[in-house]
Amino acid sequence: MTRHLHLNAFLMSTGHHEASWRLPESNPVANTDVAHYQNLARIAERGKFDSIFFADSPVLFGDVGRRPAGSLEPTVLLTAIAAATSKIGLIATASTTYNDPFNLARRFASVDHVSGGRAGWNVVTTAGPDAALNFNLADQPAHAERYDRAAEFLEVAFKLWDSWEDDATLADKEAGVWGDNAKVHPIDHVGRHFQVRGPLNLPRSPQGYPLIVQAGSSEDGKGLAARYSEAVFTAQQTLEDAQAFYKDLKARTAALGRDPNGVKILPGIVPVIGGTVEEALRLERELDELIKPEYARDQLARTLRLKPEDLPLDQQLPADLPDEDEIEGAKSRYTLIVTLARREKLTVRELIGRLGGGRGHRTFSGTPEQVADAIQEWFDADAADGFNIMPAVLPSGLEVFTDQVVPILQRRGLFRTEYTGSTLRDHYGLARPVRSGGSLEAPESLQAATA
Amino acid sequence: MTRHLHLNAFLMSTGHHEASWRLPESNPVANTDVAHYQNLARIAERGKFDSIFFADSPVLFGDVGRRPAGSLEPTVLLTAIAAATSKIGLIATASTTYNDPFNLARRFASVDHVSGGRAGWNVVTTAGPDAALNFNLADQPAHAERYDRAAEFLEVAFKLWDSWEDDATLADKEAGVWGDNAKVHPIDHVGRHFQVRGPLNLPRSPQGYPLIVQAGSSEDGKGLAARYSEAVFTAQQTLEDAQAFYKDLKARTAALGRDPNGVKILPGIVPVIGGTVEEALRLERELDELIKPEYARDQLARTLRLKPEDLPLDQQLPADLPDEDEIEGAKSRYTLIVTLARREKLTVRELIGRLGGGRGHRTFSGTPEQVADAIQEWFDADAADGFNIMPAVLPSGLEVFTDQVVPILQRRGLFRTEYTGSTLRDHYGLARPVRSGGSLEAPESLQAATA
Questions:
Q1: Chain B partners of A194 at a C-beta cutoff of 8 Å?
Q2: Is A201 on the interface with B (CB under 8 A)?
Q3: What ipTM is given for this predicted complex?
Q4: What's the Rg (C-alpha) of chain B?
């Protein structure tokens, strides 16, 4: 069987480049404009993308002067998009630290019903102390505690999604019996973090469960991904790093008794596409020149637990930075930034330019052919099952990718020319979870024995 | 100025009659069918209804054999409906007992953005012990405690919705300044139930706040309604009771320094409409004959804190029932049922028939002209500012009301023939809240002095 790659469109207001909103073409209030996002989703669906995706955090970060700030809650936004599309998958980020499992499980099941089986959930534990202050806490729970809660949260969600058997609805008008009580089960979950009786107040959804996505790359994050996730978004700067991550995560998945093909690994890539290399580089340079470095330096300083004045723009990072172990949130992001700066001996100004383009994700400027080559290289070299496409500018960057890169990938036989199924799981080639009977273990679909 | 009545369509799967799903015309899985609800909303919008509304509770109640069980989460469902309509208001029920204010405030603001200013929130405290068991609790918080939390929850939500000034977004591409930090404010709320720093991670929405709706009629419920709500849904069986409730709530509202016209009172009515009285009564009888009394008796017994065997079908209710004061949830519903049974000396079987049609709301069978008369009578007699229309069967009952009753109300000059505004607040004739500056008091719009 030919291996096909998977493409997810990671959407964010005017694009992933932090200065994209300043371009003449950009709608600077796109972040609250549902029509903007419906248009983007239709473009991605035209390009036969597996899915679109929104990041999220229940907190307003940093300086609102910098770029479009604030965003529509993703399950709401994706529902509005569902009504404007018919095939493309819809992946929303939601936090296990700042939600209740009953409400969130029901909301994802609702999105799955409303979209005809296109819901996905990017499971995050929400790093950083700021979000905690919006939820009655003085500081974030410790990293390990957040991941422990996340695992139990997922177990509860799986049980709730399984609490109605698929054939629990009888709809027997003649007999006057709508549902079969014997096929709707309390879950009676009692754990360290949650006590939830259930059942869910919603029949089982088209996909059974939404697609489970994970994006943390810390040790705890990889552990959670190996145990539960079906797709992984990751930031990798070099082929070697990407291969190492890919091999590691597939091995961890297999070690837990799961089929490693049941986890699709999608590194991020920020393509800046031009008709010629020069045109692509000119667009990249134009964008970088629109960055105001003081905004980015403030944020970099927060990430590194320094003051902005500790980071002169034309010097490299200070030599004595804390280890990842000492960081209580966004561990993998911290390490990625420090490693990138050290490896390439970047000044703070250069580092800011690199992060401004894709926030630590791989940026790639070139022609459509070169972008397709870059994608194929990693795909063929066991560094990726697909890519998280992060256009620097939206909608134009997504349009160019869809109209000029996708056809190349299709001609090479690497990417679908039509959707062959109707659910998000169909697109990723993943089975609909079989009801696990409410056991404490992960459901069977996540436990497929390696042959 | 002519007084116009307001119409809200209270939607529920195949209709408010519990046996409606058994009719040949009904889609018995309408409860999870987004296309069914989009169709209903389009019908109501054709009828120029102010709004549609969904009840909700985060728990699966009772016997799934009885009628369509489980429902789509209302903010998700209404977002899907927003995409299929353009004018009609969208009111979702959400619990202050089983949500966090930050997440819920943001979700309603998101629905308001996505719908172009059509969001409403029916604020409930969620009665009954069962929901508590889905949220880490052994029993529900006491009635007064739930209402205390509800009031603080609303204060936090108002502050979050006000945390961005309307002109906080500058979008100054030239200067590279997207937002004005001086116009985005932390709320720094510290209260008995919540500590929330804010600001919200979303610019202020088209309506400022969603329309605030309340439906509890207990003393605490009326207090909350008088203090905060802008529309009240209520169950009233007789003109006298409705007038008393109307007068009481308007007086309470005025006593708090608010304009009593700022609270629209909408009793529920379950119209069963026929071309002739006989046809209407025949439809009502056909529906009642499809009720299986054992389901309804089980629920009645739970509501009355009795065993089903304490309620022989052909006898009246037992003489010794607890007082409302002893009931810790759904107080007003308890009293309504007991009062109805005693006043009309109903047997259990007859009571079940009455409740099966509209769950305690006023049922009315007749011709379109008679239904219009019934509506006008209460409206003219200061018993209602409008009505919560609860069709016994959906979609047919809503279609008949829209096509045959609405035109009569329009001809009489009682109801709009076109929408004159674009937001839900416009339809109800309510002002957009002015930003209160994050004070601990209710915002100015809810404090309008009586002239």
A1: 136
A2: yes
A3: 0.93
A4: 22
Token code pair at residue B277 = 């009285």
Cα–Cα distance, A18 to B80 (Å, whole number): 31
pLDDT digits (tens, 9 = 90+) for A256-307: 999 999 999 999 999 999 999 999 999 999 998 998 888 888 888 888 888 9
Which residues on B lie below 8 Å from A169 (Cβ)? Answer: 28-29
- Taking only residues 139 to 178 of chain B, the set having a beta carbon closer than 8 angstroms to any beta carbon of chain A reads 164, 168-169, 171, 173, 176-178
Q: What is the pLDDT of residue A443?
A: 42
pLDDT value of residue A445: 42
Question: Hey, what domains does chain A have and what are their CATH numbers?
Answer: 6-272+364-446 (3.20.20.30)
Q: Give the residues of chain B that fall short of pLDDT 70.
A: 1, 328-330, 357, 436-451
Q: A134 and chain B: CB distance < 8 Å anywhere?
A: yes
Average pLDDT over residues A140-159: 95
Q: Torsions phi, psi of A228, nearest 5?
A: -125, -25
pLDDT score at A328: 66
Nearest CA in chain A to B184: A64
Enumerate helices (H) and strands (E) in chain A, giving the number of each.
15, 13
Cα distances (Å, whole numbers) of residue B151 to B118, B123, B260: 23, 10, 19
Higher pLDDT, A260 or A442: A260
The single-letter code of the amino acid at A134 is: N
B residues 291-310 closer than 8 Å to A (CB): 292
- The DSSP letter of residue B239 is H
C-alpha span between A397 and A335 (Å, rounded): 28
Q: Tokens 């102010």 label which residue?
A: B50
Nearest to residue A121, comparing CAs of A68, A62, A161? Answer: A161
**Alpha-carbon span A216 to A225, nearest angstrom:** 8
Whether the pTM exceeds 0.95: the reply is: no
Please tell me the distance in Å from B81's CA to the nearest CA on chain A.
8
Task: Quick: pLDDT tens for A231-254.
Answer: 999 999 899 999 999 999 999 999
Decide if A65 and B114 are in contact by the 8 Å CB cutoff.
no
Scan for tokens 């010097």, then name that residue.
A315
